[in-house]
Amino acid sequence: MLKFIFKGIIRDRSRSLLPIIVVIIGVFITVLMSGWIKGIFSDLIDVNANFTTGHVKIMTSAYAENEAQIPNDLALLDVDELIKKLNSDYPHMEWVKRINFGGLLDIPDKNGETRAQGPAVGRAVDLLSPHSKEAERMNILKSIVKGSLPTKQGEALISNDFAEKFGLKVGEKVTLFGSTMYGSMMFKTFTVCGTISFGSAILDRGAIIIDISDAQIALDMNDGASEILGFFNEGGYNDVMADSVKASFNAKYSSADDEFSPQMFKLRDQNGLDRYISLADSVSGLMVFVLIIAMSIVLWNTGLLGGLRRYNEYGIRLALGEEKSHIYKTIIYEAILIGLIGSIIGTALGLASVYYLQENGIDFSGLMKNVTMMMPGVYRAKVTPDLFYIGFIPGLVAMTLGNALAGFTIYKRKTAKLIKELDV
Amino acid sequence: MEVIKINNLVKRFPMGKGYFTALNKINLSFEKGEFAGFVGPSGSGKTTLLNIIGSLDTPSDGSVIVMGKSVSDLTYKQSARLRNKHIGFIFQTYNLLPVYTVFENVEFSLLLQNISASERKKAVMEALEWLDIADKAKSKPNMLSGGECQRVAIARAMVKKPEIILADEPTANLDSENSHRILQTMKKLNEELKVSFLFATHDEKVMKYLDRIIALVDGRVASDEKNISKLEIKV
Ligand SMILES: Nc1ncnc2c1ncn2[C@@H]1O[C@H](COP(=O)(O)OP(=O)(O)OP(=O)(O)O)[C@@H](O)[C@H]1O
Ligand SMILES: [Mg+2]
Q1: B115: domain CATH number?
Q2: Which of A191, A248, A366, A376 has the most CB atoms within 10 Å of its CB?
Q3: Predicted local confidence at residue A376, as pLDDT
Q4: pLDDT score of A408
Q5: At CA A127, angle to CA A124 and CA A131, rounded to 5?
Q6: pTM of this prediction?
Q7: Which residues, at least 6 apart from A124, have a Cβ–Cβ distance to it below 8 Å?
Q8: Spatial contact of A375 and A200, defined as CB atoms under 8 Å apart
Q9: What is the average pLDDT score of chain A?
Q10: Nearest 5°: CA angle at A91, between A86 and A97?
Q11: Which of A7, A322, A419 has its CB closest to that of B100?
Q12: What local confidence, expressed as pLDDT, does residue A41 receive?
């Protein structure tokens, strides 16, 4: 019987073409939008993870409480020892230390007098160790506008905006003024080895990037760090795994009485990302729901039109001794088949488009100049496993629902009425 | 053996505030193997009567017993089964399913009976050969002439080997040559396989073939003539 139905669908275009097109469009939109949303949110998560939150992050509880003020006097100490333990406790993760700092950048003229001055937000990461992935993680290499990465201590990358504003050139010197971990005044001069632009206002504003060893010396943070970030070696952020790592770490190393004891936070705990992640999930769900409703209504009507055209066929089939409930069933099977065909095509088209947008993002950085949220400048879609099936939900549900409703109208008609419409 | 027994059948259709009586106190019975027809002016109730016998419609009053079953007592399922197993329909406009081939059209009834593919194929080809259209098995109805379409419809009605075939104006859309051909085939089917035929018709050509002619006027049986000379038919 299925074969019989299938032949009918394939041969009678007017029976299948319109609903298939509707299903394809709906499924395509679902897949494309889901991929798009997934891409944006996963980029958002990646940027946050790579720059500030890690997949998990360790700070002292006291530092965490005032994190926004970068209270390095409350920084972690003996970090090399801690990282060694972390590496053995959680071998599936990579652990890196980071120092954040604020200060004043002073640009001297030929005579060493101040030519210009501006506030700076500094990041010290491991740039000089041979196997460090930090430069790649923070996309530094690709973000360099002029010059190159630091190759030795005493070199710094400066925000391109900052450099242009003050006419600073690669090879010139800048002096960083700030305070050490212990509150005394410090200054250190760096050679500008390159300028950098991440394409995101919050990351570019007055930024200076130096090697972690320089920061430890300058800020008197011997074997100290503002934070230790942990990244899963495989796959992106995984909330379940992050939860278990966090629980076991805190149970082992953290103590509620000691505000200097290390404490672990997962990505979702930080930067309000919890809300964004839930939002991403509910937006996808909402979209699927809305598309189901909209498509069902359209398909209900195409089903009614198709059904009207086929009263004759149903009449004949009744006369041949098919049961009405069986006809109704075949209408549903037909819907499922059409829904499947449409969903497969729609999903394929959607995936192709998502893949294209994953490889070639759309650049919104022009629009994002003044956005202070930590967001990527180029928006990419993302091919995720759920995109392979998510379109089938509206495709099949709407097609089946639409035809079930349309078929019901036919089902309710008296046998005699259907026969009457046969022009015998 | 009695295949159809009609007792005091009344059929009313709602009309305006009251009713229109399409069939009024009909009493008839048909033996197995009859070749009978209802004649009468348009609107006299021929189609209505055939539809009730075919359990496509139900009596308002009285009873119609087909193959020992009262059609008014049948559930949807049972009446579908009765049609599927025991009754074949032939219509004026052939009513073939346009998207399916001749073979598939004839196969359909068997598909509903869960008969294996090889047995279906055998039965369908047998029926098509019987009607001399086996060479058109793969054609679609729109590629056939009217006469060929009606032969397919007959093949579809006979393939399930029913006891009764109901034919409503089967020749109305055919020329005289095709009409005779169809009627001869049906007569042969009737004689060789003992299938009972019930016609509804205006057509003189059809009447010549009938063994029994029942005249309906305004929903009543006006006359019922059996054993019409067989000699006449062969001429
Ligand atoms: N479903 C219905 N509702 C109302 N009236 C109906 C219905 N079906 C048939 N009738 C009426 O019943 C009467 C008999 O109709 P029927 O179709 O049986 O006539 P017929 O003898 O087959 O005519 P024809 O020779 O034109 O086919 C007609 O007056 C018709 O209008
Ligand atoms: Mg009629």
Answers
A1: 3.40.50.300
A2: A376
A3: 63
A4: 85
A5: 135
A6: 0.76
A7: A98, A99, A100, A101, A209, A210, A211, A212, A214, A215, A216
A8: yes
A9: 88
A10: 45
A11: A7
A12: 83
In a domain, residue B232? The reply is no
**Pair of tokens at residue A405:** 């409703």
Question: Stretch A119-147: mean pLDDT, rounded?
Answer: 91
Selection from B50, B89, B51, B91 nearest residue B173 by Cα: B91
- Category of B30 on φ-ψ map: left (φ > 0), alpha (ψ -120 to 50) or beta: beta
User: Is the per-residue pLDDT at B60 higher than 70?
Assistant: yes
What pairing do the DSSP bridges indicate for beta strands B61-66 and B69-70? antiparallel
Q: pLDDT at residue A241 above 70?
A: yes
Rounded Cα gap, residues A149 and A140, in angstroms: 8
**Which residue, among B23, B46, B56, would best test binding to A if mutated, counting the most A CBs under 10 Å from its CB?**
B56
Domain that holds residue B220: 2-226
Residue B166 inside a domain? The answer is yes
Model confidence at A117: pLDDT above 50: yes
Whether B97 and A416 lie within 8 Å, measured CB to CB: no
Q: CA nearest A316: which of B154, B22, B105, B181?
A: B105
Q: Which atom of ligand 1 is closest in space to residue B44's alpha carbon?
A: 21
Cα separation, A395 vs A194, in Å, equals 52
Using the predicted structure, report yes or no on whether residue B64 has a pLDDT greater than 90. Answer: yes
B81·A324 Cβ contact <8 A: no
Residue in this structure with the two tokens 């795994």, named with its chain if needed: A241
Contact (CB<8Å) A325/B100: no
**Separation of alpha carbons B186 and B174, rounded Å:** 15
Exposed, middle or buried: residue B160 (CB in 10 Å: 0-12, 13-18, 19+)? buried
Name residues contacting ligand 1 (CB within 6 A).
Answer: A 420; B 13, 20, 22, 40, 42-48, 200
CA distance B107 to B121: 8
Decide if A398 contacts A23 (C-beta within 8 A).
Answer: yes
DSSP string, B87-107: EEEE-TT----TTS-HHHHHH
| Contacts of range A106-112, beta carbons closer than 8 Å, 24 or more positions apart | A106/A174, A106/A175, A106/A176, A106/A177, A106/A187, A107/A166, A107/A168, A107/A172, A107/A173, A107/A174, A107/A175, A108/A173, A108/A175
Q: Which atom of ligand 1 is nearest to the CA of B50?
A: 18
Residue B201 lies in a domain: yes
Residues with Cβ within 8 Å of B36's Cβ and at least 6 positions away in sequence, in order, are B30, B196, B197, B198, B199, B210, B211, B212, B213, B214
Phi, psi at residue A177, to the nearest 5°? -105, 140
* A198-222 tens-digit pLDDT: 877 778 888 899 999 999 999 999 9
Q: Where are the domains of chain A?
A: 2-47+275-423, 56-235
Residue B154: both structure tokens together:
């007959």
Alpha-carbon separation of residue A97 from A82, A127, A184, A203, A311 (angstroms) = 10, 11, 23, 19, 73
Shortest alpha-carbon distance between residue A8 and chain B (Å): 6
Least confident of A232-236, A364-368, B52-56, B168-172: A364-368
Q: Is residue B114 part of a domain?
A: yes
Number of domains composing chain B: 1
Least Cα distance to B47 among B7, B14, B83, B11 occurs for B11
Task: Please state, rounded to an integer, the average pLDDT across all residues of chain B.
Answer: 92
CA triple A106-A120-A201, angle to 5 deg? 135
pLDDT of residue A375: 60
Residue A207 has which token pair? 């930024």
